[in-house]
Amino acid sequence: MTVTVRDLRPEVPADVERFAHSRHLALPYVLWTPDGIRHRQAHTHPDAHYRSLVAEEDGETIGTAQVGMAYDSPEPGQGYLNVYVRPDRTRRGAGELLVRAAEEHLASLGAAKLFSWVLDEPGNRTFAERRGYRASRSAHFLRLDLVNGALPPLQDPQPGVELRTFADFADDPRPLFELDAETVSDEPSDVAAEFTEYETWVEETWKHPLLDRDLATVALVDGRPAAFSSAFTDRATRYSTAMTGTARAFRGRGLAKLAKNASLHRARAAGYQEALTGNDTDNEPMLAINFWFGYKICATEVRHVRELG
After folding, report:
1. From the CB of residue 193, how many other CB atoms can be counted at a distance below 10 Å?
2. What is the pLDDT of residues 23-43, one digit of tens each?
3. pLDDT tens, residue by residue, 149-182
4. I want to staple 188 with a disulfide (CB 3.0 to 4.6 A). Which of 78, 146, 203, 280 is the partner?
5. pLDDT at 189
6. Cβ–Cβ contacts within 10 Å for residue 74, how many?
7. Pairing outcome for strands 161-165 and 113-119
8. Kind of pairing between the strands at 78-85 and 113-119
9. Would the pLDDT of 46 be above 90?
10. Residue 265: alpha-carbon gap to chain centroid
């Protein structure tokens, strides 16, 4: 049997479905849907030179990679490649071929430093280290059972604080963009990000097909967006928090916790059964909030970096 690597064909529904299925088997802690994959393929900023790669064996998708440049980072020359092989299809050369194709693509774009998330398992880490990658920071995947778990009771907002949803900003989401940009810039990471283009944020985030504007929640202080908890869903049973944060001027008041609690309660009432999220292992304030909700760590990834000559 021969393993080959090629680009994803987003115009072929079955190809995208196979990509989503393979990713789900390898990384079930993240929402992978055909609509979400197609959206990222079509709407990622051109400067990212983004590609989705497929490792195929006899017509079966056994591995995938998402590859691109960190175009929104203030430091130039940084690329990323996130490679995942189905756990029941390892040791067939798929990972090696995907990494090679991804590195060649990024090197052709002038990348000097490559970043890759690697599941924190001995075989995966050894695979990365043998290819010249060294371990950097880590992050946890967390899961909350919305059916059997007990959410903290809803809390009344403080005086001057109002809870709204993203849907309430449908006519003008720019205040949400500004809040998101400020919180993202403070998020722990070894690849800094800056949101400076509103139109790009609208295409990549606001118009994302999995963003649930009725569940994503904003805390306003005297009418100004101060904290938020975004919500992505598969429109079936799974809910995921992509980002929760508070503007610098309003931190320490429990506003992010208030917003996320309201969102989780609405998600459970809407029939969602499982809540997912992820946190950098150094983000102790957010981890503490998620543990307060009842989230439990279900897996860990370690970011690896390789500097090209």
Report:
1. 15
2. 999 999 999 999 999 999 999
3. 999 999 899 999 999 999 999 999 999 999 999 9
4. 280
5. 67
6. 11
7. unpaired
8. parallel
9. yes
10. 22
Contact residues for 42 (Cβ-Cβ < 8 A; gap 6+): 10
Residues with Cβ within 8 Å of residue 117, at least 6 apart in sequence? 82, 139, 301, 302, 303, 304
Structural contact between residues 63 and 86, judged by C-beta atoms closer than 8 angstroms:
yes
Cα–Cα distance, 81 to 103 (Å, whole number): 8
Tokens 């390898």: give the residue: 26
Q: Which domains does the chain have, with CATH numbers?
A: 3-111 (3.40.630.30), 144-300 (3.40.630.30)
* Amino acid 309: pLDDT: 74
> In this structure, which amino acid lies at residue 156?
D
CA of residue 11 relative to chain centroid, distance: 23
Q: Which amino acid is present at 284?
A: E
For 212, the token pair is 């649930």
- State pTM to two decimals: 0.93
CB-neighbour burial class of residue 272 (10 A; exposed 0-12, middle 13-18, buried 19+): buried
CA distance linking residue 270 with residue 235, whole number of Å: 10
User: Residue 133: which of 106, 99, 105 has the closest Cα?
Assistant: 99
SS (HEC) of the chain = CCEEEEECCCCCHHHHHHHHHHHHHHCCCCCCCHHHHHHHHHHCCHHHCCEEEEEEECCEEEEEEEEEECCCCCCCCEEEEEEEECCCCCCCCHHHHHHHHHHHHHHHCCCCEEEEEEECCHHHHHHHHHCCCEEEEEEEEEEEECCCCCCCCCCCCCCCEEEEEHHHHCCCCHHHHHHHHHHHHCCCCCCCCCCCCHHHHHHHHHCCCCECCCCCEEEEECCEEEEEECCEECCCCEEECCCEEECHHHCCCCHHHHHHHHHHHHHHHCCCCEEEEEEECCCHHHHHHHHHHCCEEEEEEEEEEEECC
